[in-house]
Each structure stands twice: as C-alpha cells, then as structure tokens.
Amino acid sequence: MLSQAALGMCAMMKGIGISQIVRSVYFAGAVLALVAVALSGRLAEKMPASYGLAARIPAKAYLNLPDHANGVFPRLLSQTGVFKNTPECIPNEALIPYDLIVPFWSDGAVKTRWVAVPDATIKFSPGGEWAFPRGTVFVKMFDLPVDETNPSVTRRLETRLLVCDEAGGVYGLVYKWRADNSDADLLDAGLTEAVSVKTAGGSRTQMWVYPSRQDCLVCHTANAGLVLGVKTRQLNRTFTYPSGVSDNELRAWNHIGLFDSKLNESNLIAYPTLARADDASRSLEDRARSYLDVNCAGCHRPGGTVAYFDARYDTPLIRQNLIDGPVLIDQRIDNPRIVAPNDIWRSILFMRANTTEAFKMPQLAHNELDRASMDLLRKWIESLPGQPVLPPPVISPRGGTFSREVEVTLTSEPGATIRYTLNGTVPTKSDLLYEKPVLIKGPTFLRAKAFKPGFKKSITVQEIYIVGE
Length: 469
What we know:
Elements: H1 4-14, H2 18-46, E1 83-85, E2 90-91, E3 96-98, E4 110-116, E5 137-145, E6 154-164, E7 170-177, E8 184-186, E9 191-199, E10 202-210, H3 213-219, H4 232-235, E11 238-240, E12 246-248, H5 249-255, H6 284-295, H7 317-320, H8 348-353, H9 371-383, E13 394-396, E14 400-402, E15 406-411, E16 417-421, E17 432-433, E18 438-440, E19 444-451, E20 461-467
Parallel strand pairs: 14-20
Antiparallel strand pairs: 1-2, 3-4, 4-5, 5-6, 6-7, 7-8, 9-10, 11-12, 13-15, 15-18, 16-17, 16-19, 19-20
Helix pairs in contact: 6-9
C-alpha cells in the first residue's frame, strides 16, 4: 500500500485528489482479486478436487496365468483371475480401467481395457515407451457393433490378454466368448469367423480374425516396446473412472504410485498428447500423424520393418521422411512417394491404408476400412502444398473375360485429354487420343492416363480384357 506522503505527491503532480487515488488503488486490488478467483476457478475445472483412483490395490503377479509362454494356460477366461464375475465382465478389484486417445483400428470393434500391475512400478518416460514390471497383465475386450441401424447393439467376441513374462518379453492369449456370454474359451490357434451384421436393407457378413499367439508377437516386439498403446501421449487425457470422478489418467496413476518417480502434476500439460481424428481443435497434421503413430509406428521405426520412414509421433515431422519420402515398393505407380504433397494417387502410404486387398497396411486386423481415418489422411495430404493433380481416368467396364467383343469407355474430368495404349505400355502425350469408345475384339492390355495444362498428369490405370469363346 502506498504511504500518505506518496499519495500526496501523486496528487500534487497530477492534480488528482488523494481520495480518488485511494479509490483507484482499492479498485485495482479488487480487480486483481477477481482475476485470481477466475484463474483459480479455471484451474479447478482442469484439476478435480479428488482423484479418479483413490488408492492402489496391487495385483497378484500374472494373476492365475503362468510366468512364461510355455506354461499351462487356463482353458477358460473365468479361470484366469481377470474377472470376479465373468458373464457380467466385472473385473478383479486390482484391475485398473483405462482408455486411449487414439485406439488402434480393429475393424470397428469397441474395446474396453484394464491393466493388472503387481507390487512394483512402471518405468515412466514422457516420450517413447514405458517399461512394465514382470507379472503385469493387460486385458482387452472386443465387442463388435452388429446392427447398423442401432450401433449400441453389439456382440461380445473375444478377450485378449497380454502378459509381461519372467524373461522380460510378452506373450498373448485369446479367449473367444461363447454365444451365451457365460464364459470364453482359450484359442490354441488363429481363427476367422463370419459375423452377421444387420443393415437397413437386410444383412451383410463381416469377417472377424482372432489372432494366434504368434500373430500377437508380430506387433508386440521388443523394438516397439512390447506394450504398444500404454504410454504418455496416449494416457494424457481425461477418463471417467467407475468412482464417477473424471481425471487425467496420468494424474490418477501418479497419485496411486504406479510410476517409478513422482510426477509434478503441473507438468502434465506440457507432455505430448495424441489427437483424435475428430478433434477439430488440433491440426490436420497432428491428427494424421497421431493415426500413423498408432497404426503404423509399431513396425515403421528405426530397427523395425525395412522401410524409409519413421511413423512415430514423437519424431519431428521434418525427420520422419514421410513427405516426399522414397518408397521400396512402388505398386507400379509413376513417381510414387510415401506421401506425395497434394497427390493421394502417388501417396503409397494412403494407397495401402485405404484398401483391404493383399497389399493393405496394416496387414493384420484389417478387413474393414477405417473410413473416418482415411478421410483424415486424404484431407491432410491434399492440404500439403503441391501442384494440382488429375485423378486417373475411369475405365468402364472393368477388365475380365468376355464371350464377345466389348466397347470400353474412358472418362476424366472436364478439360482433360486421355491418352491410351492397347499393348501394355505406359501412355505418353504422343499415344492414342481417346475420342470415342474403344472396341476390344481380342486379348488386350489397355492402359490410360489423363493430361491437362496446369495439372500434374494422372497416374496410369489399366485393365486386361480376354475376349473369345
């Protein structure tokens, strides 16, 4: 507070009465107090008064599972110690529920997750992977929506367990639920099942793949950190716990002492956080790179599969070698790139993610397209600075075997010209100009490409026709 002498000097200098200055000082103090109250209120909104997890209940190491992959496995899920009420999926009290910001795409299945951590701590890292104590068991339920007119109708398919074993590795088990949901049986090998899904006009069949134990190890490698989803950038999010408290998962886990070092809660906001595909508050780049981190980075990283790019989110984009990065397999596309700016047709990453054919990526658990994520990748690629590119011509009808001659039409966007060949060579601007339907009378390998001033030429498209008796 200013002294009376100081206030008097101010009054003389500015011709303002002391009482006015005193009121001004008190007013400023009141404003500061209101600002402080507002800030404290905003902080209170971010940090709940209580924690999502009140106390830790250490789990029995391995639950009722063996400590190595060659042990004797319980034949029923009810024998594993995961659930205290298996038909109702009520977990053992020591199991901690959790969720991820960006889940791995699993053909549209809804997943529910828990982890059982023994009386030991997790080696925490703000970036990269965490290290989990031996005896930790991860539990993941898969429920598939089976009614497109009512997505809340689901079928319980499987429960997967991932166990951190005594040797410092992991092994996986898959339990397939019975039709009456009374229990789930251990699968000794992989299995593919046709699941009926109700549609507005009837029904369709969706193929569901239950992975083998070896399939689990294809992704859960030492190079990828063994445990794929549970890390800082996935758990730095709000989760509503069974207690009803919504809390940041890192904060809740820190509170019950799961980490090897105590975290400063004020640092959580600075830790990396992945972005959901539908999170409009984050950039297209952040959201696209988050998708790639979850669905590709297990293999596409240093020391992983043979490739030229690093899909990990915590690798800066400029060092990921994604944009304009060279490819190993060109899929017979001219000038292909991992990601070709503003050109989805030459972006091999998009091509392989946006298909369920044999060259699809990821190769496992990918029988249905993740359309929302593919739309995200498309928008991101098309937002990158680059020359406008022509889409490839459309050839109709598609190639195949025909009993008689067939008339083939080629279409492209307005203003574009189409060049084509009938001998399998790549069309150039000097090849045949498409002006009218092409009559195919015998075996023909038709290839076509579109050209337009100011645009990058299209990729080549092709069809093979077998004509004859």
